[in-house]
Amino acid sequence: MAEQLRYLSTFEVFATSWRGNESEAVREIEVRMIEKVNIAEKFAKLSEYWKPYIAAELNGQHVKLDKLKGEFVFHHHENEDELFLVVKGRFRMEFRDREEWIEEGEFIVVPRGVEHRPVADEECWIMLFEPASTLNTGNVRNERTVAQLERV
Ligand code: NI
After folding, report:
1. Considering the domain boundaries, does residue 120 fall inside one?
2. How far is ligand 1, taken at its centre, from the CA of residue 130, in Å?
């Protein structure tokens, strides 16, 4: 098995399972290619605003892509810090006591528990990095809530 795993080193083992009875169990390894991601190509597939897609995952974290336009809702996340990186355009992160413009090539980390609301006057592309458990609207549930994320 160690030999095989070495041979598969350019693949990512993402699921293993066993089938058969105890005396002749067979380990099935599901693998997929380790592929680079072209961010612009992924964004070209996104047609809706405020609908985050999962572009990758690692260590229990999701890398999400989202297009913003307009105002989101004030919310906070009880247990998750969120990273917002602007890939294209700019948006304004509003807090209860101030606001911060996040320009293309910049990112901001919003710590857990801090109320925030992204606002984009023009279309803005962002990449999010946060635990897989993170709900986009945090403690709020409304029409913007996307509970089941699709992959892109
Ligand atoms: Ni948030």
Report:
1. yes
2. 10
